[in-house]
Amino acid sequence: MKRFIIILTALLLATIGIFCGKEEPNQINKVSAPPAPIPVQQTKTKIRIGYPTMGALINGQVGNILQRTNILENNNIDGDVQGFLYGQGLRDALVTNNLDVILTSEANFVTLVGGKTPFPCKVIATLGSAGRIGIMVRLDATLKSVADLKNKVILTPFGTSAHYPTVKWATDAGLTPGQDIEIRNSQAAEARQALIRGDVDGIALWDPYIAQMLEEKQTKLLISKTDFWTTTIVSESFYNKHKDALADLIVSLKESLFYLATHQEQANQWLSETMKVDAKLIHEGSKHNTNYQAKSMESVSTSPNEDLIMVLEAIAGFNIASGLSKTQPDIKANVDTGLAKTAENKFKSRGNYDPARVTIK
């Protein structure tokens, strides 16, 4: 009996030991999970951007896209995008610190850095060609070449991208401005009306006005060129403080150009509303820009190159010769060709581009 009690006690103690030492299910070597990290909200950089509503086509198209889509937000930019009628308003807003960046023409950059009161700024990108510039005469005129403009009067807006080629075409044809041909300053709208009325012999303008007047059979084209460059300009003070954000802006320009190429009808309609020009004429004028025909993001180019620099230097020389400026600016020092490369590397580092992430506001 005593032996039975001893055995029973031993079994009881063993059973108690097993249950006391047993761990709860799923508690073996349990380690508390670290708390989920709090998402870091990146601060977007505020950039005030101006574009022309009546100027160079590609600048107006891209300006509308930046204004109406979420492309800037997707690239960590708090964009304040504003439309201005012409280059003069854009230049004034940049100089008075009411804008940080402007999308404008080659001539406006030269006017800024080499004008009578030079303004420190940089070219950081180009959207490519803005279409055609050309000299037009009335459809019923007997004039067939620029040489036929001897002793005639033509109008063009001075200081714009149409001014320099107009004078160059005249001199190349053996005409001396002020002697053999009279070239007068005029706003684009007034020049068009003056030619229609027959008050002058010719006008020098750009697309879509060339396309519109040809379409309406009001004029014929004597001569034209399509290497009408655009420039993306930033004030030097903003440039010195925000290079990384400007690289994001160039990525945004690249995405906007591809959006334009893949949504031509929509983008042209947006610009048509402000220019009061038929969207199909905007389309015709835009065909001269290679980015307008882009089939992939890789084929979109925003990098300033030597061709652009040569054009800018030629305009600067012309401005001095014509009295529009007093000193030759250092064009190369004010064109940043490296920031577009930085932007390209940023874009590539983000992996495959998804166009579906672009939405209309």
Report on the architecture of this protein:
- It is a single chain.
- By secondary structure, the protein is of the alpha/beta class.
- The protein has two domains: 45-130 and 229-357, 3-Layer(aba) Sandwich (D-Maltodextrin-Binding Protein, domain 2), CATH 3.40.190; 133-225, Periplasmic binding protein-like II (D-Maltodextrin-Binding Protein, domain 2, 3-Layer(aba) Sandwich).
- It has 14 helices and ten strands.
- It has helices at residues 2-21, 57-68, 71-74, 87-95, 106-114, 163-172, 188-197, 209-215, 236-241, 243-262, 264-275, 279-286, 306-321, 339-349, and strands at 45-52, 77-84, 101-105, 121-125, 133-138, 153-156, 182-185, 202-206, 219-225, 230-235.
- Strands 2-1-3-10-4 form a five-stranded mixed sheet, with helices on both faces.
- Helix 6 links the parallel strand 6 and strand 7.
- The radius of gyration is 32 Å and the shape is globular.
